Amino acid sequence: MVRNSVSAQEQILQGNRRAIAKAITLLESTRPESFEQGQELLESLLPHAGQALRIGITGVPGVGKSTFIEAFGLFLIEQGHRVAVLAVDPSSQLTGGSIMGDKTRMNELAQHPDAFIRPSPSSGIMGGVARKTRETMLVCEAAGYDVVIVETVGVGQSETMVASMVDLFLLLMLPNAGDELQGIKKGVLELADLVVVNKSDGKQESLAKTAQAEYRKALHLLPSTKTTWTPQILRCSALEKQGMDKIWEAVKSFRNALQSSGEWEEQRQTQTGKWMWSLVEEGLLTNFCNHPEIQKQIPELEQAVESGKMLPTTAARKLLDSWQT
Ligand SMILES: Nc1nc2c(ncn2[C@@H]2O[C@H](COP(=O)(O)OP(=O)(O)OP(=O)(O)O)[C@@H](O)[C@H]2O)c(=O)[nH]1
Ligand SMILES: [Mg+2]
């Protein structure tokens, strides 16, 4: 097994796509032995990861995320980069995901030898999706992808999760500002380092300009999450592949600003620390739920709490007491 994982490591470091896909499958596996093997492989890859620029992208359904990633990804490849695209879709286990649509909208990118596209892991809980996405990101980085894009289609919780694993968070918006500001949760706007008004083409171009001005005002009123960066508002047309250069310039100024102030490294360190704690939390919870004594009590206590016969505090205390003894 050890020899196996050494050669798998080498293949991944050389950028072998099959080996990358196999590693990701191992990491997503629910079978304990595959999982162990995956973790071992991941640990051997970690020293080679961390060099990429990590970009989170979000926006309401239909804003043009897939079209944008296709245009932006191809632009980056033209500039000599290698691009990995990972999707986080908490609803994918219910709907089957938007993967089918994405395959057609990211057609050229999906087939490009310098791109790697991976749909959302379909694990039930958000914590599981977060872990798998982060691990996939690290495998891709070790394989030499120097720009990693993490796309999320959720509105709400998944954005915060993605923001906790990327360097820059990009929010795509529609040109009709009024509706949009209501559709997007305020907390999500606050996470954005870059706001890009998409579909700035044809008849919608003047609307997009108005929207740009509106968002400038709106963002002005919000607290910035970074000390050394003020969020920028740009426009583009993903469909016509216009505006990609300006967005990339903004991404690079963001990186320069944060790297020279030390905020870049600081953010990465904070994220790594939080990552450790989320693994600890996950481990504790699994351990807790697998405890035979606790498993026995859960249905009854849950029922008692839900029907109002027992206080949640009492039930939680009972469970925790059983765990500790
Ligand atoms: N006019 C115009 N249409 C666009 C642009 N970008 C995307 N579209 C169109 O908007 C629609 C939705 O685009 P998608 O890229 O699928 O949007 P999405 O955000 O990925 O949508 P979901 O995957 O459903 O969340 C498609 O019909 C696109 O052709 C653009 O820049 N201009
Ligand atoms: Mg899409």
List the topology elements.
Blueprint: H1 2-13, H2 17-28, H3 32-45, E1 53-58, H4 65-78, E2 83-88, H5 92-95, H6 99-105, H7 107-111, E3 115-118, H8 126-142, E4 147-152, H9 157-163, E5 168-173, H10 177-183, H11 186-191, E6 194-197, H12 205-220, E7 232-235, H13 244-261, H14 263-290, H15 292-306, H16 312-324
Parallel strand pairs: 1-4, 1-5, 2-3, 2-4, 5-6, 6-7
The structure holds guanosine-5'-triphosphate (GTP) and magnesium ion (MG).
CATH architecture descriptor name of the largest domain = 3-Layer(aba) Sandwich
> Termini separation (Å)?
37 Å
The name CATH uses for the topology of the largest domain is Rossmann fold
Shape: globular
Please explain how this structure is put together.
- This protein folds into 3 domains: 1-48, Single alpha-helices involved in coiled-coils or other helix-helix interfaces, CATH 1.20.5; 50-260, P-loop containing nucleotide triphosphate hydrolases (Rossmann fold, 3-Layer(aba) Sandwich); 275-324, no CATH class.
- The protein is built from 16 helices and 7 strands.
- It has helices at 2-13, 17-28, 32-45, 65-78, 92-95, 99-105, 107-111, 126-142, 157-163, 177-183, 186-191, 205-220, 244-261, 263-290, 292-306, 312-324, and strands at 53-58, 83-88, 115-118, 147-152, 168-173, 194-197, 232-235.
- It is an alpha/beta fold and 325 residues long.
- It has a 7-stranded parallel β-sheet, with helices on both faces.
- The two termini are 37 Å apart.
- β6, α12 and β7 form a beta-alpha-beta unit.
- Residues 93-98 have low confidence and may be disordered.
- α2 packs across α3 (32-45) and α2 (17-28) runs antiparallel to α8.
- The structure holds guanosine-5'-triphosphate and magnesium ion (MG).
